[in-house]
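Please, structure for the following, as tokens.
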Amino acid sequence: MKTLILMRHAKTEQLEYGTSKSDFERELKPRGYKDIKLIASEIIRFESIPDLIISSTASRAKQTAQNLAEHLSYDQSLIRYEQFIYDGYTTTDFLSFMEQLDSKYDTIAVVGHNPEIAMMAVNLCNDNIFHFPTSATISISFDQQSWKEIKAREGKTNWFTYPSMLR
């Protein structure tokens, strides 16, 4: 069995027009760090510790992945950063990427952005998740032995949560 954890980055500063900071450079707000701790506690509670964490290369996603790794006692130097997670992708693109991953990883966490991360949640498990706020996280299981065998709409939702559900 393979388990995929999809997480939207934590709460960030607003993009202010007229400043030199780009969307790519936006950073987490203090609340974002608190929210990551809540989500990490749920991942631990559900015994869903990832074998591999993959993140967008945007600052806010990297900070989310690094802070999540810290709370999960995951070696931050092992986080894999992928530009395509920031740039936008289709379900087919995502599944093609997943096919390349080693089957030794049973649980993989991906930290990304809306709308793509929410679309993956819906497209991979065929659930109607209409609200995917910052730090929202879903765990999806696939009854497969290899990431190459993962198909859209064949996943089963194990759990779905976000910070305001946990406060």
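Residues 19 and 107 are 39 Å apart (CA to CA). Strands lie at 2-8, 52-56, 80-82, 107-112, 137-142, 156-161.
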